[in-house]
Input
Amino acid sequence: MSGNPFDSEEEPSAASDEILEGFLCPICRADLKSIDYLTEHFARQHAEEEDALKSVFKDIFTKAKKKILNNFDDERERAAPATGTAAASASNASAAASASRTSNARTRHNIFNQLTKQSVGAERAHMEYFQSVRNPRLERYASETNKLIIRLHRLLKDLPSDAVQRKQHEQQTVPWLDGSSVKLCPNCAKSFHFARRQHHCRLCGGIMCNDCSRFLQLENAMQLASLSSTRSEPLQQLLHHEDRAIRLCQHCLWLLDTRQDMHESRTCRPLLAKVYDEIRQLQKQVAPDLDMYVKIINSLLDGESIFTIADAGALRGKIGQVAETIDLRSKRILTIHSEPGSREEALKKAIRLSCVQVIKERMLSLPPLPDEALIKQIQERKRMETEQRILTEQRMAMEAYERYGAANQVGVSTENRNFAQGSDLQSLNNWSAPQASTTKSSVDDPLIEQINIIKGYIKQARQDMNFDVVETLELNLRELQREVYERQRHSSNSSSATTPQADG
Amino acid sequence: MATTPRSGGSGSGAAQRPNGTSQNKSCQFKLVLLGESAVGKSSLVLRFVKGQFHEYQESTIGAAFLTQTICIEDTVVKFEIWDTAGQERYHSLAPMYYRGAQAAIVVYDIQNQDSFQRAKSWVKELHKQASPNIVIALAGNKADLSNIRVVEFDEAKQYAEENGLLFMETSAKTGMNVNDIFLAIAKKLPKNDNNQGSVIKPNGNEPTQTTNNCCK
Output
C-alpha cells in the first residue's frame, strides 16, 4: 500500500462522492443558487468562523464534538441493519442535535455529507385555479365597466341644458338611491347636515358628500361614450363649471379611467417607436434610389447616353436630402427623455448609431458625380470606336462582296443588301439630323407620333426622378427610331429599285 | 458511510486513535484550484478524481466540490477539492474558497500568455490573502499541445522557483503529471502536519498564536 500511492485511487467509490457544483458555501456546502445569496449567507452564517476568540475554544469543542460524533457513529452502525428510513431519520435527528450543541460548521458539513440528495416531490399545477379565480374577476370588472358606458351613453345622448330637466333626465336614466336613511357619507363617514348635503353619483346612483364627489368633464365623457362632441352644441352654452361635468363616485370614475388607460396603452405607441418607424420608412424608400444612382453613374462612365449628368446630380441631391432627414430624426430620438442608464437609453443610442452607420456606409460612400468633360470624352471615344467598328465591318463586307462577286456573279442583289445593312448602322449613328427633318415633314406618321409621345414621357419621368421608367422609355424610343429608320430605308430602297424598272 | 470515520476531524483522527500507527494515520486537506477560465481546472480535477476527460467540459458555475483520497507512505490523505469558476464574474467568490485552504493549484494554459499572467496575479493574491503556510502549485495545463505553446517551460519554471511554488506541466487530456502534481502537494503537506503534532489543522496554527498574544 505504501509503495504505490494510487492504490486507493483504483477504488474511487471509497474516496469520491458525487460532484457538487453551483454556488456552494465553502463551509456547509449548501448550494445558494446565486452569487449574492452565497456572499450574504457566507457573511452571516459563517462570520463566527473568523472570530479569533472562538478558535481558543476550538480544541474544547473539537473534543466534545469528537465524543458526540463517535457516539453517533456507534448509533448509526447499530441502526444500519434496521430500515433505511429509520437510519435517515436518526441521522437527521443527530444533525439537529449536534447543530444545536456546537456551532462549529465542520460538524455540520459532515452531517450534510450523510444526507442524500432530495428528489423532487409531487408536483401540482395551479394554473386552473388561478384562471378560475381570475376570469370571473376580470369579467365582473368588464361587465361593470360596460354597464357604466351604456348608462353614460344614454345619459349624454340628449342631455337637456336646463338644470331641472337635466336632473329629471339623469334620474330617469339611473335611479338615484333613496337618501332618507343615509346619515353618513359612505366614503368618508362624515355626517350629512345642512352644510354637507347628499349628492348622487350619476352613473351608479350612489350617495356621497360633495368632498367625495368626482367630476368627469363632458368632453371626456362624450369621448368615452363614443359620441361626437359636435352633437353637444347646446351643452357648450352651459356657464357654470360644475354644470359642464358629470358627478361621479370614486369607484365609477376609477373604472372609467382604467378602461381609458387600457385603451390608450393598447393603441398608443411611444414617440420613439413612431420616429423609428419613420426612419425605417425613409431607409426603405431610399434603397432603390441608391441602386439607381450607382447604375446611372456606371452607365455614364460606360459612355451610354440613356442618362445625363443632370439626372445623376438630381438623384444625388435627393439622396442627400433623405440622409439629412434620417440624421435629423435619429437626433430627435436622442432628445426624447428617458432615465439615464436605462435600457431605453441604450436603445436610443443604438438607433442613432445604426442611423449614422447607414448614412456613412450607404449614402456617403456613393461615387462622386463624374466630370462633364470626362463623360463627353468617354462618349466621344465610344462613338469613335463604334465608327471604327462600322468602318471595318464595311470594309470586310466590301471585301467579301468582291471575293464573292469574282467567284459568282449571280448573288449580286443579295450582296447588295448585305452591304446596305452594313452602312445602315452608320447612318443610325448619325441619326439626329435626318430624324429632325422627318419629324417636321411626317407628323402624320403614327410611329413618329409615338416617338414624340415617348419623348414627352421621358421628360416627365426625369422631372419626377423616376429613372427606372426613364431607362425603359429610352430603350423603347431607340427601338422606335430604329424601326422608323428601317422603314425609311426600305421605302427609299424600293423606290430606287423601281426607278430602273421604269427606265427599262 | 465509509468516509465518515476519516472525515470526522482532519488529522486528529490519527492522533486520537492509539493503535493508528501505520494504516489509520489520516489527514484531510482543503485544496483550491484557481486560474483563468478555460485553462482546464475542472478537467484536471476530473482526471484526478475520476480518471475521466471530457473534450467539451462545461464551464463551471460558482464552484465545484470533489473529494479524493490517496495514500502516501503510511498516511491516508483526503483532498477536499474546491474547483472554482474561472470566469471573471465569479472572481469575487474566490477568496471565500481559498480562505483556510492548505493547498492551491494555480492553473494556466501553455498556449495562452494571458492565462499565465493571470496565474501570476493569482499567486500574488494567494501570498497576500491566503493562509501563510499554503502550499501553492503552478500547473501549465494542456501540455499535450506543447508544439503550439506560447509560454515556455523554462520561463514558468523560473517563475515558480522564484516564488517557491511547485511546478509541473500537466495534461488533463493525456493524464500527464496530473496525479504527480497532487501527489507532490500531498508530500509537501504532511510534513507540516507532523510538525504540528496535536494541532488539527495546519492553518489552525497561527490564530492560536495571535490570540495568545492579545488575550494574555
